């Protein structure tokens, strides 16, 4: 999957959950989706609009009311929704899924399938700040989705990060969506 799309997709908290629910067959109307995701109305609306702007959702012609439209997945959206569904299957626990709603969690897991240095992760992600990346790496390490090891093979030791446990499964789900 294109890293820029993944970064854009996960910049809104409920995007993955909305896509996973649509993939699971939940109606494309707002009320059932809000109930299925557990999102507040304002954050749900922002995420829904974001998915619409990314070209992953479209209005379902001939369905819904102008004030209460029904949405459906575009062809591009179906591919991304399948990936979101696989990720949701890996992390069914709502507390753990709340970690996935953080902006940089999924993109970091996408690039740490192989051991990577901080600078390599940062360059792969593009616009992430050092502080945001460092904080996200710490959260993922606490969640035990990422392992931090110290590479002593060089003159100056440095940390390397590698997705493990559910983090590695999420990495593989993203990689499967790229094919």
From TrEMBL:
Limits of the HTH hxlR-type domain: 11-89
UniProt keyword annotation of Metal-binding present: no
TM annotation in the entry: none
Keyword annotations from UniProtKB, A to Z: DNA-binding, Transcription, Transcription regulation
GO molecular-function term, one example from the UniProt record: DNA binding
Record-linked SUPFAM superfamilies: Winged helix' DNA-binding domain
Pfam families: HxlR
Presence of the UniProt keyword tRNA processing in the record: no
PANTHER family, alphabetized: TRANSCRIPTIONAL REGULATOR, MARR FAMILY, TRANSCRIPTIONAL REGULATORY PROTEIN
Protein's name in the database: HxlR-like helix-turn-helix
Record organism: Roseibium aggregatum
């Amino acid at each position: 999957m294109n890293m820029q799309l993944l970064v854009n997709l996960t910049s809104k908290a409920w995007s993955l959950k909305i896509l996973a629910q649509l993939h699971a067959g939940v109606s494309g109307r707002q009320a059932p989706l809000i109930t299925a995701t557990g999102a507040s109305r304002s954050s749900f609306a922002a995420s829904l609009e974001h998915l619409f702007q990314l070209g992953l959702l479209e209005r379902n012609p001939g369905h819904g009311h102008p004030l209460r439209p029904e949405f459906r997945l575009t062809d591009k959206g179906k591919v991304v929704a399948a990936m979101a569904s696989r990720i949701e299957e890996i992390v069914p626990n709502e507390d753990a899924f709340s970690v996935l709603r953080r902006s940089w969690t999924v993109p970091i897991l996408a690039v740490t399938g192989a051991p990577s240095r901080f600078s390599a992760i940062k360059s792969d992600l593009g616009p992430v700040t050092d502080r945001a990346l460092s904080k996200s790496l710490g959260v993922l390490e606490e969640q035990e989705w990422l392992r931090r090891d110290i590479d002593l093979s060089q003159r100056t030791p440095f940390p390397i990060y590698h997705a493990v446990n559910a983090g590695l499964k999420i990495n593989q789900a993203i990689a499967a969506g790229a094919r």
